[in-house]
Amino acid sequence: MPVDTHCPYCALQCGMRLDGRRVEPRDFPVNRGGLCQKGWTAATLLDSPGRLTTPLVRTGGELRETTWDHALDLVAGCLAALRAEHGPDAVAVFGGGGLTNEKAYLLGKFARVALGTSRIDYNGRFCMSSAAAAGLRAFGLDRGLPFPVTDLAGADVVLLAGANPAETMPPFLQHLSGAELIVVDPRRSATAESAALHLRPAPGTDLALALGILHAVVADGHVDTAYLDRRTTGFAQAWRIAAGWWPERAERVTGVAAADQRRAAALLAGAGNAYVLTARGTEQHARGSDTVSAWINLALALGLPGRAGSGFGCLTGQGNGQGGREHGQKADQLPGYRRLDDPAARAHVAGVWGVDPAELPGPGPSAYELLDSLSPGQALLVFGSNPVVSAPHAAHVTERLAALDLLVVADVVLSETARAADVVLPVTQWAEEDGTLTNLEGRILLRRKAVGPPAGVRTDLDVLHGLATRLGQPAERFPVDAEEVFDELRRASAGGPADYSGVSYDRLRAGEALHWPVPGPGHPGTPRAFLDSFAHPDGRARLVPVDHSGPAEPPDAEFPLSATTGRVLAHYQSGAQTRLVPELVAAVPDVFVEVHPDTAGRAGLADGDLAAVASRRGEVRARVRCVESLRPDVVFLPFHFPDAGRANLLTNPALDPVSRMPEFKVCAVRLSPVDDAVEGAA
Ligand code: SF4
Fold first, then answer.
1. Rounded to the nearest whole angstrom, what is the distance from the C-alpha of residue 317 to the centroid of ligand 1?
2. Using CA atoms, how far apart are residues 367 and 643, in angstroms rounded to an integer?
3. Average pLDDT over residues 457-466
């Protein structure tokens, strides 16, 4: 019997139909019958030989098969002993932006109630946190796209800052087909190929570019002063800084011609309908929050956010990147996008959980800080994440994981992090379980169970239930049924910024399009969030005064190039799943490094040669791809690959002061040849 479901990978959450193991595209608003290569091949993972089906426990240095009871008894016993000896914060939890809303919710509850630890964060910190922080301070609410994706079809001009949807979510491009694109990217990406205007700033200088374009908007008389007066505050303070960034000065810093900055300003200002959209390229910086604020300031000066047919938004990356940050697996949050340090929020959620608010721990460290602090005498539980590949300064993170007394990984496949674990718990995946996700436009989707899981596999909810009861929690406090968990999530989120109280499985089964907030069973949802007012108490958006300061690690004589990282069409995130799909491996089998031919030549390299790319933190071996259109001062590596091909061996864990986002998108490196013959013999 065919079942309507959604793709397991990115935040576009394309609609598909699964008939046994056959994937068919479905006419759903975000994809309208389109799927990318990853979606078409998604069912391969259901029967992959790499699929985990038995719990594993490390014995004598090897991971060996065991029973569920033995694995869960062992984990619960170790957790209880570590807590008794070192306190509740000796146990940490690391979640993922691909987990369903129900899993993210129950994981946060498990950490704070069953473990009593403050130390829980998730890999979405590495993905959306700068955009979330900037959205919150500008608009008072963080919803990636505060409008349906289909609204983009009416755009005349769209500025994409650090986004490459032609590779990351190809079906999304159909919504942009009527618009002139301005693409901001140091690479001539597949998206930039189709742009009316491609701006190539040096990595780490996007903020200066946004200031230069804002300056041109003001100087050339394009500011929407009536909108600023009516709907915003803070323009004068923001302009005080942008006034010093005339386009010629911004050109000296960014390398983007002043004329192109003015052209971008004129294109946006001359459009009847225009959007500014950001993504990881501009967000994953040690000043990522300020950089997104600079793009928001530009959009506000043009009067775009909260206007029908125009707007500002950020393109969420992971499948449940939006919902995953709303329901309590983030270090500082409770369900419903409530703040953990808000006494009223604590009282409300503690009431739903049936615990004393005073028992709830306070905010804990952010993802990288949590990983960096792992020590002997501690344990870490990882759900749906692969930080050995996806965390910055990956060699250091791998060392910290090895220092733990206990590393437990719940996953579908034996990821690189699972390989390093003491206990591995095999769990169900997308098509084998019910659950909700919230896509990039804030729409809550029901991803229905379409096939039975392999024997021996349990759901993450079941795992949390098994551990919680072994730790002395009442069984009914940790339900295993996804709909039951969701009904509790609805109550916990009621009255919060991300209010799901009016969403039910029945409404989703009936096909209702529900974008949060949905504050009540009869509420129709909120597809367009800011049409009447923004979410600050005075209803106005805030322009935030921000200035350029450059990358945390600029190139120098020893490391003269800037490395930037990103994704390719055939792979998803750390690649743990897509590297098990033969068609995707055939398309892109291994890591590579894109280099301008002149830069390669100066390093003694040519197309196809094996290169060593070294930063202050590590070295990656990668084949050179000479790319004429790349800036000569930049190299690019995809981050999906394991072992010596991990791009994150290079990356800089310098953190954004607001979002705690690491600086994935720029670090200083040098290139050198590797003797292929010697390497091959080694
Ligand atoms: S990976 Fe993203 S764009 Fe590709 S099919 Fe899946 S949801 Fe759609």
1. 10
2. 21
3. 98
